[in-house]
Amino acid sequence: MAQEGDHDAFSRLAAGSIGRLYAVARLILRDADRAEDAVQDALVQAWRDIRAVRDLDRFDAWLHRLLIRSCYRHASRTRRRTVVELRAVREERELVDTAGELSTEQRDQIARGLRRLPPDQRAALVLHHYLGLALWEVAEILEIPVGTAKSRINRATNVMRAALEADAREPVQAKGRAG
């Protein structure tokens, strides 16, 4: 049993969540390397604190809560990292597209909109719309009241909507006179 220190049991328990954790972290942090670090930190924390889980049916919610905290820590780090390693080939993991097939332009618009959001709003939006969690579940994972979760999602939605509308508007070109 994972709660008794069985590493294999913990690995089996966490294995089903790793892909989703990475996708959520990547959406929140907007950086693949930082997302991998956040997931790893959350899993290490989960392994250390697994005995604190009273109900294994709530393991996923608890694990997402640890991930969100980890994402917040990684997002708040202001120091810049210099990458020394050169990679000839990078394995990219595709995120599951819950909105159906999106064009590259649509994906770029959504990415630009997400970059405009602070991490707390981005986390609420991702949990609610990407994972499809109910408001009470988002609130539980983020450890905030349901009203706060609702307002963060609402604010994030409004910012995203404004960003998408601004991107959709064609720039008006001044008509010059030939002369």
Could you characterize the architecture of this molecule?
With 179 residues, the protein is an all-alpha fold. It folds into 2 domains: 78 residues, Rna Polymerase Sigma Factor, Chain: A; 78 residues, Winged helix-like DNA-binding domain superfamily/Winged helix DNA-binding domain (Arc Repressor Mutant, subunit A, Orthogonal Bundle). 63% of the residues lie in helices and 0% in strands. It has 8 helices and no strands. Helix 3 packs across helix 4, helix 4 crosses helix 7 and helix 6 packs across helix 7. The longest helix has 23 residues. It starts with 6 loop residues before the first helix and ends in an 11-residue tail after the last helix.
N-to-C CA distance: 83 Å
User: Which fold name corresponds to the CATH topology of the largest domain?
Assistant: Rna Polymerase Sigma Factor, Chain: A
Instruction: Find the structural class using helix and strand composition.
Output: mainly alpha
Low-confidence stretches: 78-99
Q: What would you call the shape?
A: globular
Largest sheet: none
Tell me the total number of β-strands: 0
Radius of gyration: 19 Å
Q: Strand-residue fraction?
A: under 5%
Give the number of helices: 8
Please trace the helix and strand order, writing H or E for each element: HHHHHHHH
CATH class of the largest domain: Mainly Alpha
- Estimate the mean pLDDT confidence: 77
Q: How helix-rich are the residues, as a percent range? A: 55-70%
